[in-house]
Amino acid sequence: MLIRKNLFPLVLAILMLAGFLVLTSCSKKPKPTPAQVLDNQMAATRTAIDKYVEDTERADKLMDLLEEVEGALAEYNSGFEDMVRDFREAYTDFDSTREDLEGLIEDIKASTRETRSKVLDLHFRMRDLTTEDEFKKIVKYEADAIGASRSVSSGEGGSDGSY
C-alpha cells in the first residue's frame, strides 16, 4: 500500500507528460516549403495591389510585373535547390577538387546576383507605376515575398544556412 501511494504521483506525472507530448506533436503543422511561403506572400501582395491601387490600368501593369517577380523568384528557388544538391554531391566526392567546389559556389553567387538584379529592376518598374502612398502600402508585402525566397535579398546561401 505504501508503494502504491508513492507511485501514484509518478504515474500521474508520466501520464500528464505523455498527454502533453501527444497533444503538441499532433498540433504541429509541417513547416511550409519555400515555394508555399512565396505563393502566400505573392498572394498577399496581389491583394494589396487590388486594395490600394484604384486605377485598374496601373493595377494590371503592376500585376504583370509582380508575376515576373514571382517567376524569377520561383526559378531561382528551384535552381538553388539543384545547385545545393550539386555542391553537396561534389563536397562529399573524394575526387572533387577545391576548384570544383569554388566553381560551384561561384555559380550559386552568380545566380543570386542575376536574380537580385532582375528583381530590383522589376521592383523599380513597379515603384514607378505607383504613387508614394500606394508604394508605401504595397512594398512591405513585396519585401516579405522577396525575403521568403531563399536568400536573394542577402546574396548568401540558403535560408536554412545551407550551401
Sketch the major β-sheet: none
Sheet-strand content, in percent, reads under 5%
Structural class per helix/strand content? mainly alpha
Radius of gyration: 24 Å
- Give the CA-CA distance, first to last residue: 61 Å
The low-confidence parts are 151-163
The proportion of residues forming helix, as a percent range, comes to: over 70%
Query: DSSP helix count?
Result: 5
Tally of DSSP β-strands = 0
Order of helices and strands: HHHHH
Shape: flat
Give an overview of the whole structure.
With 163 residues, this protein is mostly helical. It folds into 2 domains: 30 residues; 116 residues. It is built from 5 helices and no strands. The longest helix has 37 residues. The C terminus is likely disordered.
Short note summarizing the structure:
Helix content is 80%, strand content 0%. The chain contains five helices and no strands.
